[in-house]
Amino acid sequence: MDNATVWEWVGYLASVVVAISLMMANIKKLRWWNLLGAALFVAYGLAIAAYPVALVNFFIVLIDAYYLVKLYKAPVIEES
Fold it and tell me: Where exactly are the structural domains of the chain?
């Protein structure tokens, strides 16, 4: 398998991971899956020199990371 084909599959995988993230009801799971998909798209975009793809997904990684930090720092409210 040549290098271009490998990166093409990384792009497909990134698409599937982002699609999976959008099916999550749990916001923490959504953010984690979306972060993974966006990180894969960053690698894919850089590998094929599609810098706009890499840049926008880099910002999505930062946004997901920011909200994950907020979610994990938030106090847990237990229902009774």
Answer: 3-73
Supply 2's token pair. Answer: 């040549």
Task: Please state, in angstroms and rounded to a whole number, the distance separating the CA atoms of residues 37 and 32.
Answer: 9
Alpha-helical runs (H) found in the chain: 3-21, 27-47, 51-73
Instruction: State the pLDDT at residue 33.
Output: 96
Query: CB neighbours of 50 closer than 8 A, spacing ≥ 6?
Result: 44
Structure tokens at 25: 């009801």
Q: Output the six-digit token pair for 26.
A: 């749990």
At 46, which amino acid appears? L
pLDDT at residue 1 above 90?
no
Which pLDDT value is given to residue 80? 63
Rama region for 49: left / alpha / beta (φ>0; ψ in -120 to 50; rest): left
